Amino acid sequence: MSEFREFLNEQLQDDEFREQWEKNQPEMDLIRADLYTSLLQNIDARE
Fold first, then answer.
1. pLDDT tens across 3-47, in order?
2. How far is Cα 12 from Cα 40, in angstroms, rounded to an integer?
3. Helix (H) or strand (E) holding 13
């Protein structure tokens, strides 16, 4: 397990932190999807 994942798991045991983390997940999912789409478009443009 990565150091980040270990740290995150520890932080998620804090109720306030976990609440904020979960609250922000939908936005983070959109950001990840947008970055992934941009990456795929850049790869397709090079081919």
1. 999 999 999 999 999 999 999 999 999 999 999 999 888 887 766
2. 32
3. none
